[in-house]
Amino acid sequence: QSALTQPASVSGSPGQSITISCTGTSSDVGGYNYVSWYQHYPGKAPKLMIYEVNNRPSGVSNRFSGSKSGNTASLTISGLQAEDEADYYCNSYTISSTLVFGGGTKLTVL
Amino acid sequence: EVYLVESGGGLVQPGGSLRLSCAASGFTFSSYSMNWVRQAPGKGLEWISYISGSSSTLYYADSVRGRFTISRDNAKNSLYLQMNSLRDEDTAVYYCARGYYDSGLDSWGQGTLVTVSS
């Protein structure tokens, strides 16, 4: 199972919006509405930000939103804040009943 | 509050074995699926194994299938990962995580470091 494709890095200024893409295939992202997104600060436990493409767990800011079109899912962060600077990973269910992560995207807040 | 605490990491030689544990608290452990996810130095997250609440269903990533075995003891609220035939490329921080595809991996431990080196 190949990793999902994410941009290695994205950046934005405080207050702006950014979008991170996550591209897979019809056997994972495109085939199921089971894409999740994780925020990861180095040395810390990853945190679930979005599940089932566009659902936010309790306590996650509504500045975080998810969407999907075809084989590509996206995470959008609006009103960028310094604390959003972290690594972000997408994850999808696959046709083999396994899970697969994207390669990760480093978000820099300028 | 949900707590997941991994243990058992350390330095092991190539070809060796190690058993990781994950102690769970704050929720009804037997009702939840569990996973192991790892992160090699400088690399991204990699899902490696899943186990259902009753242990009836197990899944593995190709990279570890046949070498690693996931298990759980619901009476002890514990998750395990038996790692055999370890390779240099298995060096990573290993996390246990609760959940599956529908809910996402909604709770994670802090991780335990496994270093495979001679």
Q: What's the SSE blueprint?
A:
The complex is a heterodimer of chains A (110) and B (118).
Chain A: E1 9-12, E2 18-23, E3 35-40, E4 47-50, E5 64-69, E6 72-77, E7 87-93, E8 99-101, E9 105-109
Parallel strand pairs in A: 1-9
Antiparallel strand pairs in A: 2-6, 3-4, 3-7, 5-6, 7-8, 7-9
Chain B: E1 3-7, E2 10-12, E3 18-25, E4 34-39, E5 45-51, E6 58-60, E7 68-73, E8 78-83, E9 92-100, E10 104-108, E11 112-116
Parallel strand pairs in B: 2-11
Antiparallel strand pairs in B: 1-3, 3-8, 4-5, 4-9, 5-6, 7-8, 9-10, 9-11
How do you describe this structure in short?
With 110 residues, chain A is mainly beta. In chain A, 0% of the residues lie in helices and 43% in strands. Helix content of chain B is 0%, strand content 53%.
Q: How would you characterize the overall build of this protein?
A:
The complex is a heterodimer of chains A (110) and B (118). Chain A has strands at 9-12, 18-23, 35-40, 47-50, 64-69, 72-77, 87-93, 99-101, 105-109. Chain A has 110 residues and is mainly beta. In chain A, strands 1, 3, 4, 7, 8 and 9 form a six-stranded mixed beta sheet that branches. Chain A has a three-stranded antiparallel beta sheet with strand order 2-6-5, with no helix packed on it. The radius of gyration of chain A is 13 Å and the shape is globular. In chain A, 35% of the residues are buried. Chain B is globular and about 40 Å long. By secondary structure, chain B is mainly beta. Chain B has no helices and eleven strands. In chain B, strands 2, 4, 5, 6, 9, 10 and 11 form a seven-stranded mixed beta sheet that branches. Chain B has a four-stranded antiparallel beta sheet with strand order 1-3-8-7, with no helix packed on it. In chain B, 42% of the residues are buried. In chain B, strand 5 and strand 6 form a beta hairpin. Chain A binds chain B through residues 1, 3, 32, 34, 36, 38, 40, 44-48, 50-52, 57, 87, 89, 91, 93, 96-104, and chain B through 35, 37, 44-47, 50, 59-62, 95, 97, 99-106, 108-111.
